[in-house]
Protein: Peroxiredoxin
Organism: Tersicoccus phoenicis
Amino acid sequence: MPTPVTNKATTTWNGDLFTGSGTTNLETSGAGSFPVNWKARAEESGSATTPEELIASAHATCFAMQFSNELKENDTPPTTLRTSAEVTFEVGKGITGIALSVTGQVDGISADDFSRVAESAKTNCPVSQALKAVDVTLTASLG
């Protein structure tokens, strides 16, 4: 059995929730440090990253990996998959939904089979499984 892989990120926060800010660091990969603050999370995305943006990145990546594997197991390996995830956060409610979307270039597969395998990948994706408390929708199309 393979050895479990553990990844690490850290965040340093300064001040209170509404006027404070911080930095989150991708420690395992060293890929970067990103500013975080409440305003970006609750009022206007874009000025800094948010937990929801990081979840969206993780979910889009995990789903694409799972889907590519399931397409290969279906004897229809993908040429390209373009996947996005939109995570919705509502103040006072938390994360209220995730919308996955994928467009793929896959030879030898029907649109129905593409959608069927995509739904299976959504169910089997480890990040989807970790986020079962949230409604996850999926739009899948050949492009």
